[in-house]
Design brief:
By secondary structure, the protein is α+β, with helices and mostly antiparallel strands. Helix content is about 40%, strand content about 25%. It contains eleven helices and 18 strands.
């Protein structure tokens, strides 16, 4: 056994980097050895906890934190090796640094100690400098483990907070999706002389597409489609705000409507409507977003459709036989060019014809082979739906796009509106 003078010659150092005392448990069946080590380690700055048996040590370990354990190997009833195994078998505890004091130095003994969970060995008799060096290494390791544990706890807390934030955002987005879907009057509306089907499927929770229809008079119906640049919440909010200016429930707030000389609502010229929305987005809305737009005035008494494009894909007229023809020539988007002009176009529908408005998410959908569907592909799909009921066509279109994409998520929002002209 080392003498008190040898032990006292070692420098003090039983503290963490933050100045907190290290707690060291001394386990030895020799009261003299326990007293000697307790005195010297206390001088070095350790908070010393004595134990005279393995059972007493385990009881102490159950009551509180211990940073280092310095245990004799050979003890009655429970050896230091058995104590080490029992200590390492405990679950959910901070790992301490376990040093075995032993006069056994065979390679098999050391291997057995390491297998039991010992971190270091100190051969008897030992001197103070060696003991301090061994405990210093343990102090550094335990301090590093404690810092890592604290960082992990902080990280877990931060991740938990992020998870709660994400859950709140997900709930808000789900509610926003329901609200956006509610902006569609219904997915199928019957007017006097026409059926209108609509579909809106954002690529994420919410999107920048929106379509709608509103009654103007007994013989006129207004149709609109928006596709705001970008995706997500900002695009969805702008699409909702723009569509709010085309509401059918409050015609006084509808920018597409005017009062005629008889005091009746009528549709403004479609090119003027596009120009007004362009001015509105540039002058009254503080945003860097822009959008494409298609607005149409349908005369259900005559089958005449007057429409204007603002960068939106050209509408498709599908005859009763399934043959289709594209109309229009583009026009500048809304919100990019002050004073932009928007050409007005006219189409004549016959009973049984269908007038299809759609976003570029439809024609730019990636299909088998990595190519985009394109206008020809859309016309081919619609030809196959010629005998299908109006209220089923757009759902079938969406299903076909998903099948053609071979299970991949849609890269862009999908929206479409189809008016089936029944005749006066």
């Amino acid at each position: 056994m080392a003498g008190a003078e040898d032990l006292a010659g070692a420098m003090a150092g039983g503290q963490f980097g933050d100045g907190q005392q290290m707690r060291i448990l001394i386990v030895d069946d020799s009261p003299a050895q326990v007293k000697l080590l307790s005195t010297v380690l206390g001088r070095w700055g350790y908070e010393v906890i004595p134990a005279h048996s393995g059972a007493e040590a385990l009881a102490i370990l159950e009551r509180g934190r211990v940073d280092l354990i310095l245990s004799d190997w050979m003890m009655p009833n429970m050896t230091g090796l058995e104590l080490c195994r029992a200590y390492r078998a405990r679950q959910g505890r901070d790992p301490g640094y376990f040093v075995l004091l032993t006069s056994r130095n065979a390679q098999s003994d050391l291997a057995e100690g390491l297998a039991a969970g010992a971190d270091d060995f100190l051969a008897k008799p030992f001197n103070g400098e060696e003991l301090r060096a061994r405990l210093g290494a343990g102090t550094r390791l335990v301090a590093a483990q404690r810092r890592l544990s604290e960082k992990n706890a902080q990280l877990a807390e931060a991740l938990g907070e992020l998870q709660r934030i994400h859950e709140n955002i997900a709930r808000d987005l789900a509610e926003a999706r329901r609200l956006q879907q509610s902006l569609l009057p219904r997915e199928f509306v019957r007017f006097n002389g026409a059926d209108v089907a609509m579909i809106l499927r954002p690529s994420g929770q919410v999107g920048g597409d929106l379509v709608g229809a509103f009654g103007v008079s007994e013989t006129h119906v207004g149709l609109f489609a928006f596709d705001v640049s970008g995706h997500g919440i900002a695009a969805a909010l702008l699409a909702a705000r723009l569509a709010g200016h085309l509401t059918g429930s409050n015609p006084d707030q509808n920018l597409a409507l005017a009062i005629d000389e008889k005091g009746q609502y009528r549709m403004r010229p479609v090119d003027e409507i596009c120009a007004e929305f362009n001015r509105l987005l540039l002058e009254d809305m503080d945003t860097d977003l822009y959008c494409t737009m298609l607005i149409a005035d349908c005369n259900l008494a005559t089958g005449t459709v007057s429409f204007a494009q603002a960068g939106h894909p050209p509408p498709l007229v599908i005859g009763a036989s399934g043959a289709g023809r594209f109309l229009g020539d583009g026009g500048p988007p809304i919100g990019l060019f002050p004073g932009a002009d928007y050409p007005r176009h006219t189409a004549q529908l016959a009973p049984g014809d269908r007038f299809l408005m759609y976003s570029d998410g439809v024609t730019e959908c990636t299909v088998a082979g990595g190519e985009q569907l394109g206008g020809d592909g859309l016309a081919d799909l619609m030809r196959g739906f010629a005998g299908m009921a109006t209220e089923e066509v757009l759902e079938a279109l969406h299903w076909k796009l998903g099948a053609a994409a071979e299970g991949a998520e849609m890269e862009d929002d999908i929206s479409a509106l189809m008016l089936a002209y029944l005749g006066a």
